[in-house]
Amino acid sequence: MGPLVPDIIGNDLNLILALVIGVFFGMILEQAGFSTSKKLVGLFYGYDFTVLRVFFTAGIVAMIGVMIMEHYGLIDINLVYINPTYAWSAVIGGLIMGLGFVVGGFCPGTSVCAAAIGKIDAMIFIGGSFLGVLFFAEGYPLFEDLYKSSFFGNPRFFETLGISQNMFAFVMVVVALAAFWFVSIIENRVNGVRQKVIQFTPYYISLASIGLMIALSAFMFPERKTMLENLVENPGVISSYEIKTMSVDEFAYRLMDPDNKMQVIDFRSPEAYFKFNLPKSTLFSIDNLFEKEPNRVLSVRHKINVIVADDELTEKKLAIMAKEVGYDRVWILKGGLNDFKESILGFKQLYEPRTKQEADLFRFRNKASKEIPLLIQQNKSAGPVKKIQKRVVGGC
Fold this sequence. Notes:
By secondary structure, this protein is mainly alpha-helical. It contains 20 helices and six strands. The chain has a six-stranded parallel β-sheet with strand order 1-5-4-2-3-6.
């Protein structure tokens, strides 16, 4: 599961790969004409909107790509770096960069691309960029309050708007298509082209079809957590899904058994967990099921994971989600913790056993009702699932 850094790709190798990718990215920019300041500033004068089309398209493709990877559990979105939002520094920085873009004819990335093929104006632009960086760094104590003002954290746009991720992606693709159409009108007027923007030719029909497919694909890859939460609310799925159950007696036996092949995955609230928790138990949340690092707990070889909650229905819903995420050896406690507390911890023999099997059962439960509370006092549970890995800092 991604991100690949630092588990699969180390930090040092990451820098080397970034350099290689950057070189290829620069080559593509150059081939696309982005080393020409005249083409770049055409965005501001209205005669060439290639920059808008390329970067808007790249953003949409990346957005859909991340959604697909998240849908199939290939990336832990919580570990993807999101630039923190400082409103005033973003506004002022954007104005300064926009002004520099218009005056100099480059942005920081395209200036390096142009300098690489020997353009003098791009080299001068880069020199100016370094002077600006030096000025900001040396003057940081003066700018710090403004730089850190109006902090909004790491918001995601669809969460701020209160809409689903899929709806936001769909709207963004539609806005992109509308923007491409609108800027084409502007281009034609500025350049004196009388050709219609929309023509019913195979080329334009193909482009429109691709745009429509990308827009609709936003609904084909819903957020995995939301999709599974909706799935387990279906009574038909609950009744037909096969999940292994463990009786309260076997569960009690395994808790007392020194053979450490069972781990208890406790999905109750933190308050309930810290008030009463079992040996060999780890506190989990639904979010942990979809996160890269906590999931290692569920992937330990030769161990069975017994999901516990107050009732069996909740356990089964969580177990279905865990199975759908891709985890095997998932069991649930029959009757839930409520039944375990009543049948084992609070065991009371109400009548004399009528068979030998019943006598053995009563004897075992009587023993378990005394030993397990001692184990609870003596043993420390694992507590909440540990998350050490931090988001890799980066971004443009």
